Amino acid sequence: MNKVILITGCSSGFGMLTAAKLAAAGHTIYATMRNLQKQNALMLELEQRDTMCQILHLDVTEDKSINKVIDTIEKQAGRLDVLINNAGYGIGGFFEDLSEDEIRSQFETNFFGVQKVTRSALPLMRATASKSGKIFSTKIINISSAQGRSTLPGLGAYGASKFALEGFSESLYFELQPFGIEVVILEPGTYLTKAIDENSHEAAAGLKPDSPYAKYTKRLKDLHGKILITKKGVGEPEDVAIMIEDIINRNRNKLRYLAGTQAKIRIWMRSILPFRWFSKIILKLAMGVNKSN
């Protein structure tokens, strides 16, 4: 069955691939992005799959921008079956190196942005669910991260924004059950996408050699670079798009899905090991520290 689907953050990465894949499957896709000058990658992906979709401007931090898109969908399609909150970015840096503005900006997009889009979309989604003959065919899929379950050093602000998203999503799962709307959290690990480079930033202070965390910041950058070169445990972004399509097509889903080998191994270790043991592993690998208190 054709579904009307709104996706945020479609200029690259998971959002771009998911929009193209779902459009090729016959769904009506509203692919949105903050900067429409970056739509070329999506247009090329659509062309390669011999399909098309609507591409609209949407900044998740601006209510006017969000409401305009929801109004457009309501006027054109009259319903909204699936909302995929994908827009987001990551800032790396140790807490003391992060400014208050950098932390707040991280939350404005990754957490409050999701809330804003969801709040605007819910009236139309409730109406859609009430008219649907199939319970839980109306879905909200929030793209979180493995960092929302277990955060690494140097990713505190990003991890905190994803922890907040996880808590919000879990509460929303219960709140929307009576209306027949299903909420699902997808938690990707490390993937090779252009979005990883474009949407990842570093704390300005962390780049200064006099930072007390300078050597740890360099170690983490080097480690990340090695992972991307060796591709060990790094997944293909198309796999995430496939998972999203499966979630949409499935009658009932789990609340959370992990995506990627690295993420699954780390979360598994976090769940079975005493935290003291787990912390020794992380400190050694990420920071080169051989002991923990």
UniProtKB/TrEMBL annotation:
Any single GO molecular-function term of the entry would be: oxidoreductase activity
Q: What protein name applies here?
A: Uncharacterized protein
Q: Which Gene3D superfamilies match?
A: NAD(P)-binding Rossmann-like Domain
The record's listing under Pfam families reads:
adh_short (PF00106)
**Keyword Oxidoreductase appears in the UniProt entry:** yes
Parts of the chain that traverse the membrane: none
Similarity section: Belongs to the short-chain dehydrogenases/reductases (SDR) family.
What keywords does the record list, in alphabetical order?
Answer: Oxidoreductase
Q: Which InterPro entries match?
A: NAD(P)-bd_dom_sf, SDR_fam, SDR_oxidoreductase
